[in-house]
Amino acid sequence: MSLNRCEQRMFDYWEKHLEERQFWLEKVRAAAKAAADNHAAAARLEPELWRYYLERSGVVKEFREAARHEGLQRTSMKNLAEFILRLWTEPRPRKKPPSEVV
Prior knowledge:
The protein has helices at residues 5-16, 18-34, 38-57, 61-70, 78-88. By secondary structure, it is mainly alpha-helical. α2 (18-34) packs antiparallel against α3, α2 packs across α5 (78-88) and α3 crosses α5 (78-88). The model has no long low-confidence stretch (mean pLDDT 92).
């Protein structure tokens, strides 16, 4: 999976800041549990990830510098949401296709 620069920056930040990663790990697992499937969970997480990115851009040096150079144009966080759902949650059982009636 390919992450855009903003998504990769955030993921790298979590690798260095365990408390932040733990917060998001719990948030991701709760979203996965509450959603019907991972697509719905990713759709729910994506805007929250962007809001978090904006918030970090005001207080964390790497984010602030990136915002100064790249701007804060709305960027999709969908790939990151899907990636962390796959990485931090148990796989959901696959639904069996309905058997054909003969």
